[in-house]
Amino acid sequence: MRTLQTHHRSVCVQTETTLSSFDVSTKLVSHTAVASSTPLKTSSKRPCLDLEEDEDILQECSSILTSQETDVTFNPAEADTSITEPKDLSAQESSPIQNICKYIVYKTCIMELFDVCPVCHRSCHIRSQRIGTFLRVEQLCHHCQFSRKWNSQPILGSTPAGNLHLSAAVYLSGASFFTIEKIFAAMKLHLFKYDTFRRHARMCIEPAIVYKWRNWQDEMLQLLAQREKVIVGGDMRADSPGHSAKYGSYTMMDLETNTVVDVQLVQSNEVGGSYHMEKEGLKRGLDFLDAHGVTLDCIVTDRHPQIQKFLRERNVNQFYDVWHIEKGISKQLEKVCKLKGCEKIRKWLHSIKNHIYWTDASSSSGPERVAKWMSMLNHMQNKHTHEDSNFPACLHGTRRSRDTKKWLAAGTLPYLKLEKVLSNKRIVKDVAKLSPHYQTSSIEVFHSVILRFTPKNVVFLFLGMLCRLYLAALHYNENAGRPQATTAAGRPVFKVTFPKAKKGEYRVREVKTQATFKYVDDLLDLIFDKVFVDPAPYVDDVLRIPIPPALCAEYDRPEKEEAISSRVSRFNQ
After folding, report:
1. Could you give the CA distance from residue 511 to residue 495 in angstroms, rounded to a whole number?
2. Rounded CA separation 26/28 (Å)
3. Can you tell me the distance from the alpha carbon of 234 to that of 243, in angstroms, rounded to the nearest whole number?
4. Tens digit of each residue's pLDDT (9 = 90 or more) over 231-283
5. Which superkingdom (predicted)?
6. pTM
7. Who has the most CB within 10 Å: 61, 362, 368, 373?
8. Strands 21-27, 59-62: pairing kind
9. What is the DSSP string of 500-524?
10. What DSSP string describes 111-155?
11. Distance between CA atoms of 97 and 532, rounded to whole angstroms?
12. 60, containing H or E segment
């Protein structure tokens, strides 16, 4: 145990067995010393960081005399009052504070260590003080005047290290403070207030996240600027479904390296509504890449009409993600299958879905894609030669179908409904621009990672939302290239899943190796070693981030007492 009383020396006796180890620490002071309620002087406070913690009322208790023996190797004559304790607590540890192991200790187990005076074996007066997760115990023997102070965790300036570390761990892992608060309450673990967590986040954690992301981003942009052409993918994720989303985050990803390059956060009141957030996010992302000298070859997106028009006017080569087109066509065909007399179309749904993926993967030009796509109408009539020279005949061999009733006849209701969907002018135009390079499926995976850090049922402030997006990007970039897991015998590991969207169809997926969290360790080192020591330059970077006004800022806020009185009078009528 660490004792923080100055001008004295501690003696430690340790006993080890095969099953467990025990540490016993005793400390002797002169018999004329008296207990002081003045806290131990720590390193000078930094004027730019003032984090006051919530304090409990001091608790006092007296212990009874026990027959426990004290450390017989301790010699009071060896006490050296000339030794002073260094102010830099971290220098006393063999490893940084953030890397030291922690344990859950019961209060009764701690107090047992201070019940008996190690000098005269009599009961002692014990005084305890709690600050969040931090506990300080002061022991005083009224008989021999032995006294000592013990802290449960190191003190950084005026902040207990454990409090700051817990706040950082909650934030960096994407957890919710209120969820952790419920867990602590169920275990009867003491925790600081939410205001303390927010102060830690505002002064240390969020500045470190912004600094870490921007440093990594600058290095990535330098590499991209050296390449002649860059293929990026872009897509927006709203923080809630429907047309009432507050935030929209637009992701720009380098599809060749599967790396998130930029994330732009847009608030709905910045652009006049959530419908316009995707276009604004894309505009900011393209401007950002242009400002850093990145030359785009093309961009792969979904089929949003605003995005199509914007990129066309900006002369940016655009391709469409095949999954988004397939999803839109499948929804239309599902509706057609429910019409009376069109039930036969359901037999072709799976083939049509596969056909659009094959069309994209096997084609090298837009006209070839259109020819292959339109050949599906002839194929469903059992006709396998086509008029378009880009694809004159089906590539499959001649074979007799087991289900002859599946073929459609021209002019029938099922065929006409199917033809209306597949030959739709917009769909044919978009099929010609299917991406020949990469798809945006990796962006969808990144969006699922974002859910871990920003659940849609939790409301975040703008800066908190932005920092959590940066955390999600750091996590994705570190783990996107994980290899497939293998068994002890070296065989690759797979798992069989039944996705809800596939309606009973199974999928075989590769099992990846365990995710790593090196970015969390780097952020903790940055917080404790640099940001906490001198937060000013890091906080200044955060303050320069433009934050839009809250959605309710445009409305007049009444006085609270006036609003309450009007509510009471209304319900009393």
Report:
1. 7
2. 7
3. 20
4. 999 999 998 877 788 999 999 999 999 999 999 999 999 998 888 999 999 99
5. Eukaryota
6. 0.80
7. 373
8. unpaired
9. GGGTT--EEEEPBPPP--HHHHHHH
10. HHTTSB-TTT--B-EEEEEEETTEEEEEEE-TTT--EEEEESS-E
11. 13
12. strand 59-62
